[in-house]
User: What shape does this take?
Amino acid sequence: MTITTEFSHELLDTDQASKFIYGPRGKKGTLEQQRYRGVGPKFIKVGKLVRYRKSDLIEYLDQQTRTATSHQNLQTY
Assistant: This one.
């Protein structure tokens, strides 16, 4: 379920967020592993529900922007 108050506050569940970031073949397990390891985009937890703000996903993608593959201080997986 998507809740919209403004574009920046639109909330996505894990499956929707993984498809937003990684495309139609994105798997929610990728984001679940990132949450477990403490990496990846910011998320909101309310009880057992996990949600991602669309604005946080866009910010995360912006932080992944590189101009070369040899950047220093990048986290490797």
Notes: The first strand starts at residue 11 and ends at 12.
